[in-house]
Amino acid sequence: MASFKRILLKLSGEAAMGDQSFGIDPPTVARVAGEVKAAKDAGHEICLVIGGGNIFRGMAGAAKGMNRTTADYMGMLATVMNALAMQDALEAIGVSTRVQSAVEMNKVCEPVILRRAERHLEKGRVVIFAAGVGDPYFTTDSGAALRASEMKCDALLKGTSVDGVYDSDPKTNPAATRFDRIGYDRVLADNLKVMDAAAVSLCRDNNIPIVVFNIREPGNLARVLAGEGVSTTVGAIEEGQAHG
Ligand code: UDP
Where does UMP bind (predicted)? Predict the structure, then answer.
């Protein structure tokens, strides 16, 4: 794998949940923070986006009768809570951080100011972007693709609970095969579950590779960044080589 100097790491809110079925599990957040520190110590510049699904998803609220826009703002606030939990865990192990939220809340964190974010990275800080794109009807996947584009990241790393992109769901189909590399267009055409379509097409338009890997496996982020771990890269060229 090409060496990626500046990365955007996207974690779903569930990565903060551990074995719980809801909310934030501080030991789990601390473990993930350790992964981020290892990547930073290896010389990478790191932007972070964390979802909010462990606390609240707008669609779920809307399905139970809430106004969708209100519910989505609640989801965005959930991502701010996760961002603060991650900031706390990173600072506890000596990693300097800043949180920038797309929904402004000055007492809690900075607003999104890209030039300032750039400066934070130069100074070796991890920048955590919260509240997605700051508007309802979007997801934090889209927020991640947007910030990765704006910050000119070399790659978007998507940490999930599976070790890459499969041609069918490996949890239900034992014969599912994993791709080493796959094209953006194939992911969109086959509706493969990588990120939502808006996020994938934004990465495609800005030629940002998406690296899908398992964040639950200890040490995996640093391994994948060193080109050693198991992952799938979604990129411009389709070399769709599948492995069992
Ligand atoms: N959200 C939003 N706009 C954004 C990002 C997030 O409205 O730009 C809301 C939306 O309701 C979403 C929730 O925040 O369901 C949590 O984000 P997401 O579902 O992306 O979290 P994840 O699945 O990654 O944990």
Answer: 52, 72, 133-140
State in Å: Cα 79 to ligand 1 middle: 7
3: confidence class by pLDDT, cuts 50, 70, 90: confident
Q: Is 152 helix (H, G, I), strand (E, B) or coil?
A: coil
Q: Which CATH class is domain 6-243?
A: alpha beta
97's enclosing H/E stretch is: strand 97-101
Q: Is the dihedral of CA 25, 156, 40, 228 positive or negative?
A: positive
Cβ atoms of 102 and 131 closer than 8 Å: yes
Query: What pLDDT is stored for residue 244 in this prediction?
Result: 42
Q: Residue 244 annotated as binding?
A: no
Whether this model's pTM surpasses 0.85: yes
Confidence of residue 193 (pLDDT cuts 50, 70, 90): confident
136 is in an annotated binding site: yes
Residue 14 CA: nearest ligand 1 atom is 25
| Top mutation candidate among 9, 28, 76 for ligand 1, by most atoms within 8 Å of CB | 76
Distance 13 CA to ligand 1 centre (A): 9
The confidence band for 242, taking pLDDT boundaries of 50, 70 and 90, is low
Residues facing residue 243 across a β-bridge: 178
